[in-house]
Input
Amino acid sequence: MPELLTIGYEASTIAAVTDALRAAGTALLIDVRAVPQSRKPGFSRRLLEAAMTEAGIGYVHLQPLGTPKPGRDAARAGHPAVMERIFRAHMAGDAPQAALAQARGLAAGQRACLLCFERDPAHCHRRLVAEMIAAETGQSIVHLTPAS
Output
């Protein structure tokens, strides 16, 4: 079973993220942002997908695995425990559970990496998604840190 990777692009560039993904042997990038837009150049969905295609890395966006707006606001305000509570409640829904099952299937068959914004996985819901997947698959989790 391949390791399950995660990465945050805060304080990084698309080139540095792509380099980190390539170095880790990533086959598929799973975007777990609720809103796949970014003010950071290269990280809006279409540009990110194009960069991954160019790098030979697959891309999928699983919107239901994103944090609802109140959770994103809590994370930005430096309240990861509040974000976690909101996100866990969100994950009880049918659409998030279906997306989680899809992510689990994708990650079990290839070296996949979950992407979100926050650099520190302790402050980001992607850690929670990774833990939910690993609880079912037994995969180990590796948090990548791209160059700043």
